[in-house]
Sequence to fold (287 residues):
Amino acid sequence: MMAPIIEYIDYRKYIRDFYEERKAGRFGFSWGAFAKLAGFSSPVFLQYVCEGKKNLSETTAPQVATAMGLAGYETNFFQLLVAFDNAKNAESKKKALDAITELSRIHKVRSVAADEYDFFKSWKNALIRELAPAMPGATPRQMAGATRRHVTTNEVNEILEFLQQTGHLAKDENGNYHQQDRSLKMSPSSIRSAVAHDLQLQMAELAVDALRNENAEDRNITGLTIGITRENYERIVAELAECRRRIVAIATESDKTDEVYRLNMQLFPLTDIPKPFEQPSKKRRKK
Fold:
């Protein structure tokens, strides 16, 4: 039996899973039959939606929700997933995610999309996720005291409860915290794009604070100013991605944690050279 709609982030995957389940349990169920049930004249429309070739709209989303037997807040949730997918910018995506979070709160249901969105809205969640297992038997007050960025005891309490609810941390019979997974990834890219801007701003501010207040031997902040082509830019981005992968592998080799660090990788433009731009000839410069 397929998972409920609230465990989905991608509405296209939900439609695909619904179709596969219905087709397996009912002889003769096809994309054409599904499309007709939802009120579409094209027999392949919903198939194209699942393949990313077509999109549902604010008008057609309720039709498909009804065809799949969704009702009440489930229909609203499905419509919000469609709105989230259709959003053209990060601000619109955040608005849809805020609505999903509010809907989950009102109806007292757990939403995967809302949980992931809430986790990545604040740098403090990732900090406590790493810090709690490194301090066996510690109280929230002691954990708060171990942070260098003024996380309060009340915040630690709230974050620990949230991390347990969302499965990021588990608490054993001795009261010690353990990570469900050693490494952590933000997925899918749609949620990443919605929260990355604000989270990166928070992390950049922490880097400035560390530059001002941390001892040089406890930090490593360096940089390069380089002239590159667009092709080189793409190669450098790929190299940074591979570097991050190797660093995660090194960090997760051991279950032991002495301190929690944040690593920022930043590559951004300092110029806006007109394209195409030709250097004036010597003859023209003399004039």
Q: What stands out?
A: The chain is about 55% helix and 0% strand. The two ends are 79 Å apart (CA to CA). The longest helix spans residues 189-213.
